[in-house]
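Batch 3, record 17
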Amino acid sequence: MPPRKIRNTLALALLGLLLERPMHPYEMASTLRERYKDTTFKINPGSLYDTVEALAKHRWIEPVETVREGNRPERTVYAHTELGRQEFVAWLDELVRVPVTEYPKFVAAVSYLGALGPERAADALEERARHLAERIEGADTALADTVGKGAPRLFMIEVEFVRHAWQAELDWARRTAAEIRSGSLPWPETF
Amino acid sequence: MPPRKIRNTLALALLGLLLERPMHPYEMASTLRERYKDTTFKINPGSLYDTVEALAKHRWIEPVETVREGNRPERTVYAHTELGRQEFVAWLDELVRVPVTEYPKFVAAVSYLGALGPERAADALEERARHLAERIEGADTALADTVGKGAPRLFMIEVEFVRHAWQAELDWARRTAAEIRSGSLPWPETF
DNA sequence: GGTCGTATAGTCGGTTCCGACTAATAGGGA
DNA sequence: TCCCTATTAGTCGGAACCGACTATACGACC
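Prediction for the assembled complex:
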């Protein structure tokens, strides 16, 4: 099995939208923002148009019409292809089934935590915990908000997940800070 | 405060090593591998030399000698500068204190979970849970291993963190799969 | 004494990604 | 009526990133 032709997850988001109905690139971006998906996908004008082009090149999507309004440049409206639908589901399935190794910045930093010295490390972890607590509150508000509007839980399921992940990270940060303060996490000289 | 000149976390790893002692690029990579840091930092030959160059350009490190062995090309040995040490600590501190928004692939996939349909989604989540369980075991072995060799816990603290994060993800995956199977997570028609 | 695998050390060209910048229109207020 | 701002829509050049490829040395094994 050759590796997937497109790896950028923004492509997944765009494909997902086009399964609903045809759109032009800018509309895809604004629709994603409306639905709070801009926290899940990095939407950058440059990447947006690059990605649309890549999707078209591989025939996962195709232009269906070009609309001209006033004398502005034409907007090209795209729709998914049958190939696109298949790739979308296969890709999605794989992303859920198989964890891929990623390199989050926090893990990188933690691996050199020693260099901060015990005091500063504990301080920093406690500050992070406060930031995380705020984000969790934000997620809770967003969830209450949309479910309150009658939207099904499944539409915000990824927010439930990141909330859970943040909570775990917060717990770890607090616990580790406490261990440092209590001396139960010994600090070698080497740092 | 202008944004950091270098964002690639591999640069953080390299700087961290050079604080111990001067090295040439290839040695940095192999040292990181010896210490299991290749799961925390993406070490790619291309990025390695690019990053070293960038660090040198900004005077965070500087060449201290060029060694020639046999008739192979010269190896340039680098050391950190005082500026480099300062940037390292400041950067580290910030990375720990302030969570930065990242875009993990799993979150992207979960946000379209609906498209898989309840059966397949639950299947996929359960398979992921099994993979995660294996990784957790692996982390436990690595931890027992190195602590058994007398290394201080702090040297593997990032492994403790990712283990914790994986466990949280596993719990969520299992719980969500169960909710889907039991029907307590309703599946709208739209998908 | 040839050769086969592995460790050492790095190059290079191509994609991908980013974000500052451009530009037109609509709406609202002084 | 004129200006200001927000929204719509997209371009472009460069930085970052990747990974396949090159090439030498060394020990082991037959």
